[in-house]
Amino acid sequence: MTAGAGADAAPVRVLIVDDDALVRAGLSMILGGAPDVRVVGEASDGAEVPAAVEAYAPDVVLMDIRMPRVDGLTATEALRAAPRSPEVLVLTTFDADEQVLRALRAGAAGFLLKDTPPAEIVQAIRRVAAGEAALSPAVTRKLITHVTATAPAGVGQDPRRERALRLLDGLSEREREVAVALGQGRSNAEIAAELFMSVATVKAYVSRLLAKLDLNNRVQVALLVHDAGLV
User: Fold this and answer.
1) For the Response regulatory domain, which residue ranges apply (predicted)?
2) What CATH number is given to the structural domain containing 187?
């Protein structure tokens, strides 16, 4: 779902999912100060997410990873597998562990550390609602390092790498260039400048990549590029 941040645009609708009532209250207070963001509902466990999404129709879900009954990873996988699902931003205390990678592979558009400054939380929500990834180049590099460190040794022993290479082989040269740029953590504006395109053309290429690769968002494209060893 896409939402703008302009004065006349509808506010970005946010659902907060966290088992800690104090965390939910703090996030609601932070987001309440942004005129273009509105908290439409809260949930205290991943088990409550499907009903809450149906009731509140959020554009973005802030999803805690660790919850007692249904964790945020399971909830994210189920949510992103459904049609017309909202974007998901994962909340975590760890910035590059296996659970974060699993959430990103499932279709989360990014993640936020729980001690992220308020202004950056609001900006991340705006970016995700606008179809951008909420991963900075620095975080993307850290994820690349983690993916590389946990990958099986030897190309022939890594089915994830082989699958990634097979999927990327079906792209045109220009599509592949855009995919690699996404893997480097570039924004649409940065890709446009680097590849001498308009931002609108970059957006069209990203949409084409998602359709061709059968992926949910640009973060999954970036991880596919990392799996293939192209960045």
Assistant:
1) 13-129
2) 3.40.50.2300
In a domain, 208, yes or no: yes
Average pLDDT over residues 134-151: 61
Query: Residue 8 pLDDT > 80, yes or no?
Result: no
> What's the pLDDT tens digit per position in 13-27?
999 999 999 999 999
For residue 35, what are the CA distances in angstroms to 26, 90, 138?
17, 22, 29
On whether both 116 and 161 belong to a single domain, the answer is no
CA distance 129 to 134: 10
Per-residue pLDDT tens over the stretch 176-193: 999 999 888 788 889 999
Give me the amino acid identity at 181: A
pLDDT tens digits for range 192-205: 999 999 999 999 99
Helix (H, G, I), strand (E, B) or coil at 12: strand
Give the 3-state secondary structure of residue 17.
strand
Q: Domain of 222?
A: 149-227
Non-local CB neighbours of 33 within 8 Å, separated by 6+ positions:
118, 122
For residue 155 the two structure tokens come to 């190309």
